[in-house]
Design a protein that fits this description.
Keywords: Membrane, Transmembrane, Transmembrane helix. The protein is flat and about 80 Å long. The protein is built from 14 helices and no strands. The chain has 288 residues and is mainly alpha-helical.
């Protein structure tokens, strides 16, 4: 009983499902393995031998977990495929328009977007990585936001035409795809020791707080960095330090909320304070 139970837990640690689905899968696999064990015992094997054969026939826990995870990640895979598709289309149309109207080839931007596309393709093959490293994936999506924003900046100097309108449509679809992936990355939680022990309300509070504060703070950081790159003045680069401190505090609160869910109240206060501070800066800029 102990070996089978531990084996099933090792499999289920590699997938992300809610508590009800977890229990259903646990019961189903445990019952099946016990049935196989009893079959081998009826053939004359000892209990230890029968258990060993049942587990061996079922497969390596890591491989079984990965196969099961792949069948449960359909939404995420579809979202990643859409992100990859819109990213490539956005990159192609931006490059074509710039080459045709301005005879300009954004090689560095192309290299950056190609790298993002390559990583995305790898993530499609390894969806479990997203489940295990939710924060890293959300930060990866913010790199896509940088690519999206810089593409808009590049196309801004091009005169209006049918191609620029096509670029606007693609940019909206691209942005929607990025946001959908960020939301899926935030909402789907892996079953882990720290997180699954908490109440559903606590988990929802952590996810909502992380997502809303992340959209506000990372948009602020992104716009400030973009402004610094455009104007290229020493003063703007010097002002990046407090902006980066805000970003580091937010990332620290993410790590704390993921590893210490019992401190959700503290991380929520930190994130709310940072978000309010950033919004106050935006309001001051708007009112000037």
């Amino acid at each position: 009983m102990g070996r089978i139970n531990d084996y099933v837990k090792q499999i289920l640690q590699r997938i992300e499902v809610n508590e009800q689905e977890y229990q259903a899968l646990h019961i189903e696999m445990t019952a099946y393995l016990h049935e196989r064990k009893e079959l081998y015992r009826s053939e004359g094997y000892s209990e230890d031998q029968a258990t060993e054969m049942a587990l061996k026939k079922f497969g390596d826990s890591k491989c079984v977990g990965q196969s099961l995870a792949s069948s449960l990640f359909l939404q995420r895979k579809k979202a990643l495929y859409s992100l990859l598709l819109f990213s490539l289309a956005y990159t192609v149309i931006t490059t074509v328009v710039l080459s045709y109207f301005n005879n300009y080839h954004p090689l560095r931007w192309l290299l950056f977007t190609s790298l993002l596309a390559t990583i995305t393709f790898a993530l499609i093959k390894r969806p479990l990585f997203i489940a295990r490293h939710r924060i890293i994936f959300i930060l990866f999506c913010f790199l896509y936001l940088i690519a999206w924003f810089y593409g808009l900046f590049l196309i801004d100097v091009v005169p209006n035409s049918m191609f620029t309108w096509l670029h606007v449509v693609l940019s909206l679809l691209y942005l929607i795809s990025i946001i959908i992936n960020m939301i899926l990355g935030a909402l789907f939680q892996p079953i882990n020791k720290h997180f699954s022990d908490e109440k559903l309300k606590t988990r929802r509070l952590i996810v909502i707080s992380n997502l809303i504060s992340g959209l506000i703070i990372c948009s602020y950081v992104l716009s400030f960095i973009a402004g610094s790159l455009i104007f290229l003045t020493f003063n703007h680069f010097a002002r990046l330090f407090p902006v980066l401190i805000i970003l580091l505090l937010w990332v620290g609160s993410l790590l704390l909320s993921g590893n210490r869910p019992k401190l959700a109240w503290l991380t929520t206060i930190i994130q709310a304070t940072l978000a309010i501070y950033v919004l106050s800066i935006w309001f001051r800029i708007i009112l000037l």
